[in-house]
Design a protein that fits this description.
Length: 267
């Protein structure tokens, strides 16, 4: 198993950033890509293809692109291209096609797609070219562009995924039961266990990136394995959400630390 990748800095919502797209439906505009809709459509294109342009205001490093809230009947992207550079359009740094291709992951069940670059890439302008295979509409609930946190010590196995059923039942005076169904969300619990002095970065990076930069107020993405060898397993278990429990930092000895966090899907 390769190292986990954690996106912790939501660049689309940084000060001065703008996002535009072609073929946007008026009532479901591009600005909605910044909001949290993991199980519903926020942005919709009038065709099964769109070009999304992001201007971060200045050159910023990014390494992860994550899309969630995709159309329920979408099966893959025939075009999935990421371009980035110092000028709009930039240089084509990634092109992928077809579900199951190694370079990016597409999970039709959960309606999410993710791509982790081999390394961080610094650019002001980012462009995403999408053409969807199947489905009636090209929908996106959330677009997340972020740098990646990777620690020397990987997350421990096993990690836990807990289903959260938000459905409600109301019992009437006559005993009848009314059920209000809501879609299941997930909660992921991951642990880092540092075993020697070289793993001090578990303390430094997790404190700096997750506690200070993200905390409970900003979204993160966890991809359990950033390598391509375990697709589509890692995409199926990737999660976008907010830290619900930062967890205590256990000091096990000199430069030896352990940490557990709990992330709930959605906003």
């Amino acid at each position: 198993m390769g190292k986990a990748a954690i996106g912790f800095n939501d660049l689309l919502n940084r000060a001065g950033a703008t996002v535009t797209a072609t073929n946007a439906v008026t009532t479901m505009p591009t600005e909605n890509l910044r909001t949290d809709h993991v199980r519903g459509s926020a942005f919709r294109a009038t065709a099964l293809a769109t070009q999304i342009d992001i201007d971060l205001g200045e050159a910023v490093e990014a390494e992860m692109l994550f899309l969630t809230g995709l159309a329920a009947d979408a099966t893959a992207f025939s075009t999935f291209s990421v371009l980035a550079g110092t000028t709009p359009g930039g240089a084509d740094i990634f092109t992928g096609s077809a579900i199951g291709q190694a370079e990016y992951g597409f999970d039709a069940v959960r309606g999410q797609a993710v791509y982790v670059l081999p390394q961080g890439y610094t650019a002001r302008y980012w462009r995403l070219l999408l053409e969807q295979t199947g489905g009636t509409n090209l929908d996106i609930g959330r677009l997340f562009l972020s740098p990646v946190l990777s620690t020397t010590q990987n997350i421990g196995m096993p990690f836990s995924v807990v289903p959260i059923d938000r459905s409600q039942q109301v019992i009437g005076q006559g005993g009848q039961v009314s059920t209000y169904r809501r879609e299941l969300l997930r909660e992921m619990v991951v642990t880092w266990e540092a075993t020697n002095a070289t793993d001090v970065d578990v303390f430094d990076t997790l404190n700096a990136a997750l506690d200070r930069a993200s905390g409970a107020a900003r979204p993160i993405v966890i991809v359990p394995d950033r390598t391509t060898g375990n697709r589509p397993w890692d995409i199926r278990h990737a999660i976008y959400g907010f830290i619900r429990e930062l967890g205590q930092m256990d000091v096990q000895g000199v430069n030896q630390y352990a940490r557990t966090i709990r992330v709930r899907e959605g906003g």
